[in-house]
Amino acid sequence: MGDLVGTITDGVIQKSSTLTTESSNNSLDKDAFLQLLVTQMKYQDPLNPSTDTEYVAQLAQFSQLEQLQNLGTTMTNSQAFSLVGKDVIMKTQDGSGNTSYYSGTVDFVTVTNGKAYLSIGGNLFPADKLDTVIDEDYMNQLPQVAETEITYNIAEPKDADIEISLGYGEHSASKAIVSINGKEISDEYISVKENKLTIKKEAFANLEEGTYRVSISFNNSYETTVGNKVTVTVVNNPVEVKPEADKTEGETTEDETVEG
What we know:
Order of helices and strands: HHEEEEEEHEEEEEEEEE
Number of helices: 3
Number of domains: 2
């Protein structure tokens, strides 16, 4: 399975190319606990100071909290590495607190500052945002996009065809939305017929030479988006004009006479 399914952008629709943002966390972590302890020491009542025993007990609690959090992080990271090659759905929130889902195949796992991140379709997601691990048979019911490399020649513009599936049953879609490098293109440049999606040449007209990622979103129940299967490379290769073929043997021109 290589299909990404996004809001499933590569499994759920994600119309922007920005990386997902983490929601605010209101739980107290070890840093907050330490800050409370320091504040307590700073503003304690000099006439009724805390005893050494109380401080030792609080420091022990802090140490236990830190070890539990480190253990939880280690377990989360270990689980994350086992997800490479799996199809997953990540639960994300934007800056306004709106929840969306992004899913696809985990390409690799990286650890930054002790925290694991899953790479899906070129985007990194915190491992603790994992919502669902998807069974392959279930994933196959979602809209799919065949791996396609499009070459668009500015000197000889042509439409581009991509093989797709709109999905099956309750997870099927009736419409596809196409974005190039995160910018949605007009519906007038898109047509879907059976298992073929056609992007009209006008959609590429303003692109400069280079390679671009094409993301295809569907209006199914998961608002599936596939963003790691299609690329378009824009080139500008002059079209060679073939010279007129030499006249074939036995042909004569108007100026030639046939001897009797």
